[in-house]
Amino acid sequence: MDFMIERLLGFALVLTRLSAFFLVVPVFGSTSIPVRIRVAGVVLLSVFFSMSVSLGFESGGVSGLEAGLYLCNEAIYGFCLGLIASILFSAVKVSGRIVERQMGFAMAETFDPLSGERGQPLGTLFEMIFILLFLSANGLHLFLMVIGKSYEIFQPGSMPGIASMAEGVVEAGSVMLMAALRLAAPMLAAFLVLMVILAVLARIVPEMNILFVSLPLRVGLGLLMAAIFLPFIQGFVSEFSGWMEKLVAF
Roughly how many angstroms between the first and final C-alpha of the chain, as a whole number? Predict the structure, then answer.
């Protein structure tokens, strides 16, 4: 009887961490995937992991209150893992939004099929291409590796401190912003050169309407630089994998 209770408690802890993780993780946590498929996938993965991991405590003397606290801890830890993955995943989208501001598309909106909300067109395009490249490189296996590594470092019932998890989330946000700026840096440099050229033209030909001329030039330059930039998104997939391995253990 004690063995059955231990296995049920272990399964509940594994299910809680996996549910919280895949609730916010990119691609799998998208609203475009039916809820039944997501629930079935989480349950199947929970059955697999519950048979291969051991508890981080003795289940014989665990009370109902302690079991509830363990479940809350697993939910917090799984949510932080998924949040780190989601923050790092959005670096490409943020870089697209930076470029859109330079192109004059700050008010442009389009439908985002992943979130079901309104989004920026260029950032959404970059995100869709990155997702295709990520899936073609077996990116979902990376998420399974991350959650499996988390069970090796922190068994069900054990977790890092709140300070460590908060530090991991903040570091992920810092890495995401630096990566987005680095990805957008060549395009920002091109817009800077364009602004210098337009400033020189404004001094040489004062009667020229620089605002009227700059709008199509900025849009055309942005689309040209975006087309040149797209092949380099493939390199970001491997960087994303490296960052996840560094930040997953907090």
Answer: 36
